[in-house]
């Protein structure tokens, strides 16, 4: 009876090659659709597909709200998303929220990820041009959300930040950095990503 008493219950049944997209609150359908299409098409080269999970109500994250900052602490989202991922045996969970997120020591974050928890969260709050007093621009808003989603998923799959300003794994200190970078991994990061995902059990 090989494999019965390995103590690796968590790895059985094995993870599916699924990226679970979890909307939190009323995220715009055109944003969810665009992220789904882009990520699904990109990650299909690694045998992954994206699936849509049920919408999580924003009320579930009331405990993460900091009234002094009027923002939500990002890490609280990761633990909730992890539970969903565990249940579904998903290799990765990507949450998208319109709420404004922060982490200690940072004024705000566009997103956050944890490779060990296999989860990522992206906030669109500061991705819409209107936030910066600019005219609404749906295409730009979509592009920014795709970039931040690809960035956080890169972290879930073990990629660190990249010094190449055009690489999607470059750290965005402000929206200017997000607009400078492409939505894709540079050759160095892509090679590393392939290695990380190729070594999957
Ligand atoms: Zn990052
Ligand atoms: Zn790179």
UniProtKB/TrEMBL annotation:
Domain of life of the native organism: Archaea
Main EC class the enzyme belongs to: hydrolase
Annotated GO MF terms: metallopeptidase activity; zinc ion binding
Record SUPFAM superfamilies: Metalloproteases ('zincins'), catalytic domain (SSF55486)
Residues holding Zn(2+) 1: 151, 155, 161
Record GO biological process: proteolysis
Keywords linked to the UniProt accession: Hydrolase, Metal-binding, Metalloprotease, Protease, Zinc
UniProt EC number: 3.4.-.-
Residues of the active site: 152 (proton acceptor)
Binding note for cofactor: Binds 2 Zn(2+) ions per subunit. One is catalytic, whereas the other seems to have a structural role.
Binding residues annotated for Zn(2+) 2, in chain numbering: 162, 167, 186, 189
Cofactor(s) annotated in UniProt: Zn(2+)
Record bears the keyword Chaperone: no
Signal peptide: none
Family: Belongs to the peptidase M54 family.
Function (record text): Probable zinc metalloprotease whose natural substrate is unknown.
Subunit: Monomer.
Name used for this protein in its record: Archaemetzincin
Gene expressing this chain: amzA
């Amino acid at each position: 009876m090989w494999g019965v008493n390995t103590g690796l219950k968590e790895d059985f049944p094995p993870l599916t090659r699924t990226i679970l997209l979890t909307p939190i609150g009323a995220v715009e359908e055109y944003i969810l659709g665009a992220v789904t299409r882009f990520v699904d098409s990109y990650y299909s080269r690694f045998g992954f597909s994206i699936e849509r999970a049920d919408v999580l109500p924003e009320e579930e994250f009331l405990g993460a709200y900091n009234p002094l900052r009027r923002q939500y602490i990002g890490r609280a989202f990761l633990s909730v998303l992890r539970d969903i991922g565990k249940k579904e045996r998903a290799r990765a969970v990507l949450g998208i929220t319109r709420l404004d997120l922060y982490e200690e020591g940072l004024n705000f974050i566009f997103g956050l990820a944890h490779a060990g928890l296999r989860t990522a969260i992206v906030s669109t709050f500061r991705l819409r041009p209107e936030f910066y007093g600019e005219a609404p621009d749906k295409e730009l808003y979509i592009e920014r959300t795709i970039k931040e989603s690809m960035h956080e998923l890169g972290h879930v799959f073990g990629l660190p930040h990249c010094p190449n300003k055009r690489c999607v794994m470059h750290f965005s200190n402000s929206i200017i950095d997000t607009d400078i970078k492409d939505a894709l991994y540079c050759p160095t990061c892509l090679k590393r990503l392939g290695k990380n995902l190729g070594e999957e059990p």
